[in-house]
Specification:
Chain lengths: 230, 593
């Protein structure tokens, strides 16, 4: 860009003689000034100003005084924790149930008890547990359960381990495909208490599975499994 | 529950010319909770030496209180000790939330939207909380009456006072709403109120302007504008025959000089003011082009708000930004972005101006609030950029600015870039290095100042956890969906710097210094030549003490003095100023001939 700088040199050089460039004044400007003033002598104004600052520490906000913002609970997702969020779970608001996992669509359906015998495939036993992330967003985490029908694997084992830790501390699950399991990280900082929604769990489940409830043999998924629809 | 015996809600109606002082029309004062009300017309107000309230015991409450304080000052009244600005409290409570009031609550017959009425206006603060208030159209009609009718009839007077009283009722409803919900954090709200008083004082002082020169520039602006473009175009060739800036020509210029430029997500060049300004900061040869583009609109020159007394006065728009910094208008405030125009700042005869700024304020704040001892030591050393180069092992320990100038410049770009929340891509463009190099430098910065980065990461995590962030003195920000992580990371530094500025402004104005205006991390102070040294020393001490009080670390200051008959000049606008002055002289010579 040296040629551009040459352009600048071609420009008119006549800066008004009276112009003072504050950025280019000698650095000793302040020192000279301080030397000239009556520093060292009492300046009532400075004392008064310092008095204003004397009590300023009393205004310092404590962390407890901070005000949070809550998301309005209009939807509740059913999903696994993401690898960029810390989570906490509420074991008191958990339900072991059979769900249908549509792996193609990434959707989880709640199966009403009387329908379970009609399900041919794709079902799994999960612990549906109320979970919140660091932003206070609530979701239902279907934690894989250990049962005879489910193959033991490190993904499920590590999920369950994370679920137990998340009851008492903030954890993060990061998938490690090479190791074939989740790596579970614990938040190192002193983090605030989780903000679980105050709605009853049944209400949360109703919001979460509102249109993902298989409660009739006429349900599309049942009909599809039985070859009754295209 | 009020922590005061009485809260007096006040609203003034006034006219004001651009850059001028308020012409007070009327005022209404109402005692909170008991309905006692006082309606005063201009004649009554002018006859009063004192405001009708207990200056020590009562708390004055207003919405955008700096306007009411401006009227107090205009009337020569002493100021109340306790002030609550409901606007500041509304901003603090809703900062970061993207709220929209319920339309029907604004009751606008004309269908004016909440945006047209100002998101943080009293009307919308009320509407957001579901509190009914005056119709928007009625408000506009009365405002118009106040502005256009110097001698209103008795009926018009009644209409104006009733309107003023309705605003007081609105403010009272808002205060009641906040008090009932315990939303007013009184000690900190009073501190913010104290700052609105400081702001009113600074707005009243204003910045002295060389109006004769301003007039000459305005008279010749059409010709000057064309000549300016022609002179800049000789170097850049980015304007067409109609003096219009052409993006495709600018692309050609960038290609010619092999200069990378930030792009928008669409792939088009980012040609907004901020990007241009930033790029000109890193590539000073672009500065004339930036300055010309900034000056193109006639309003840049004639839009400056200059009063009859040759002072530039502009609303500081306190608490308007998400960080709590001021947001004065770019077009009316002399410290708007066209930097060459600042050459119009000139102290009156017998006076001087001093521009006092905190030395690398944001780095000091970052080091102090993150608790990074190494960064703090770098700040407290002689050169923070060389300190990074040395700490990161990029240069030998005995390296200096002179021996390793290029490395220092690169490190400066990185340090400043991190302060602006830039990533590797942006830093690479600005430093003229590869993205890989920029990543490496960022990584070195992370390794060197680990505590700072740990704090920065924790800040983001904590903000996402709690949904809110708060400064030491209670300015808060809500975090909503899809937050900008860099903005969250940078917020504590910027908002704490704003707290420092407020603390210093309160102290400096309360002790009687003549502060013309705050400018980001600086103050412009005016003083008689015989008191200059004392006044500047006092301001320096106050600013350094404000740093200590807010972040626990004394923050040094730099001073630049402009004595009459000199004028202020920003280094980044000096070329443009010289160019304009030369063209003005030529144009006037031609006209005279």
């Amino acid at each position: 860009m040296s040629e551009s700088k040459a352009h600048q040199q071609q420009q008119p050089e006549t800066v008004q003689a009276s112009a003072t460039d504050p950025a280019e004044l000698p650095p000793d400007n302040k020192a000279e000034l301080l030397a000239n003033n009556k520093m060292g002598q009492a300046d009532d104004r400075v004392d008064q100003a310092l008095g204003i600052f004397a009590d300023l520490d009393k205004l310092a906000v404590t962390p407890e005084a901070q005000v949070g913002a809550r998301e309005i609970l209009s939807t509740v997702a059913v999903r696994r924790p993401k690898n960029n969020e810390f989570i906490r779970v509420d074991p008191a608001r958990s339900l072991t149930s059979v769900v249908f996992e549509d792996r193609d669509e990434g959707e989880v359906y709640f199966i009403a008890p009387h329908i379970r015998p009609m399900m041919i495939a794709g079902t799994a036993v999960k612990l549906l547990t109320l979970t919140v992330n660091q932003a206070g967003v609530a979701f239902i985490w279907p934690v894989p359960c250990l049962d005879d029908a489910t193959r033991r694997n490190a993904w499920n084992e590590s999920s369950r381990a994370a679920f137990h830790r998340a009851q008492v501390e903030w954890v993060k699950l990061v998938g490690d495909r090479v190791a074939g399991q989740y790596r579970v990280y614990i938040a190192e900082g002193e983090l605030p208490k989780p903000r679980f929604p105050d709605k009853p769990f049944t209400e949360l489940l109703a919001i979460a599975f509102g249109n993902r409830l298989i409660d009739s043999e006429d349900h599309y998924i049942i009909r599809a499994q039985r070859g009754l629809t295209v | 529950m009020l922590p005061f015996r009485r809260a007096i809600i006040v609203d003034f109606e006034f006219r004001i010319e651009p850059g001028g002082l308020p012409h007070v029309v009327c005022a209404v004062l109402r005692e909170f909770g008991c309905g006692r009300e006082l309606r005063l017309w201009r004649d009554d107000l002018l006859a009063m030496r004192q405001p009708p309230l207990d200056l020590e015991q009562d708390v004055l409450v207003a919405y955008y209180a700096s306007a009411e304080i401006a009227c107090f000052l205009q009337l020569g009244w002493p100021l109340p000790r306790h002030v609550i600005d409901l606007y500041a409290e509304h901003r603090c409570l809703t900062n970061g939330l993207l709220l929209k009031p319920e339309r029907q609550k604004t009751k606008s017959r004309s269908g004016k939207t909440w945006k047209a009425n100002g998101r943080d206006s009293l009307l919308n603060a009320l509407a957001l909380r579901g509190l009914a208030h005056l119709d928007v159209d009625t408000k506009d009609a009365v405002r118009n009456l106040i502005l256009t009718e110097p001698n209103p009839s008795p009926a018009q007077r009644a209409e104006i006072v009733n309107y003023c009283a309705s605003d007081v009722l609105g403010a009272e409803a808002l205060l009641r709403y906040m008090v009932e919900r315990n939303q007013i954090d009184w000690p900190r709200a009073l501190w913010r109120g104290r700052y609105t008083v400081a702001a009113a004082r600074m707005e009243r002082v204003g910045v002295p302007i060389d109006v004769a020169l301003h007039q000459r520039l305005a008279t010749n602006w059409t010709i000057l504008r064309h000549e300016l473009i022609a002179s800049v175009n000789r170097s850049f060739d980015v304007f067409d025959g109609n003096d219009t800036f052409k993006a495709n020509k600018f692309v050609a210029y960038l290609l010619r000089w092999n200069l990378p430029w930030p792009k928008l997500p669409s792939g088009a060049l980012a040609l907004d003011t901020e990007t241009f300004d930033e790029m000109a900061r890193f590539h000073p040869e672009l500065r004339p082009l930036y300055e010309v583009r900034q000056s193109l609109g006639e309003m840049r020159l004639t839009g400056l708000a200059i009063g009859d007394d040759a002072r530039n006065r502009s609303l500081l728009s306190v608490f308007q930004t998400v960080t709590g910094r001021n947001a004065p208008s770019n077009s009316t405030f002399i410290f708007g972005p066209a930097r060459w125009l600042r050459g119009l700042i000139k102290p009156p005869s017998g006076f001087a101006l001093a521009y006092v700024d905190w030395r690398s304020q944001e780095i000091a704040v970052a080091a102090a609030i993150s608790g990074d001892e190494r960064l703090l030591a770098a700040y407290q050393g002689d050169d923070v950029y060389m300190a990074f180069a040395r700490d990161a092992g990029l240069v030998p320990t005995d390296a200096t600015k002179e021996t390793h100038h290029d490395v220092r410049e690169m490190c400066k770009t990185v340090v400043l870039g991190i302060g602006y929340g830039m990533g590797a891509d942006s830093i690479a463009i600005r430093a003229g290095i590869s993205v890989a190099e920029a990543r490496n430098l960022l990584s070195l910065h992370r390794d060197t100042y680990r505590q700072y980065w740990r704090w920065a990461d924790d800040t983001v995590t904590s903000a996402l956890f709690t949904g809110a962030m708060t400064t030491k003195f209670g300015w808060q920000r809500h975090i909503v969906k899809n937050p900008n992580v860099r903005s969250i990371q940078n917020w504590p530094v910027q908002s704490t710097a704003a707290e420092m500025m407020r603390a210093a402004a309160i102290a400096a104005t309360e002790v009687g210094l003549t502060i013309c205006c705050p400018i980001h991390d600086a103050f412009l102070v005016e003083a008689r030549l015989d008191t200059l040294d004392d006044d500047v020393a006092a301001l320096c001490t106050i600013m350094e003490a404000a740093g200590k009080a807010v972040i626990g670390v004394p923050v040094g200051t730099d001073v630049k003095i402009i004595r009459s008959p000199d004028r202020y000049m920003d280094a980044r606008g000096a070329d443009m100023w010289a160019r304009v002055m030369s063209l003005l002289a030529k144009t006037e010579r031609k006209a005279a001939a």
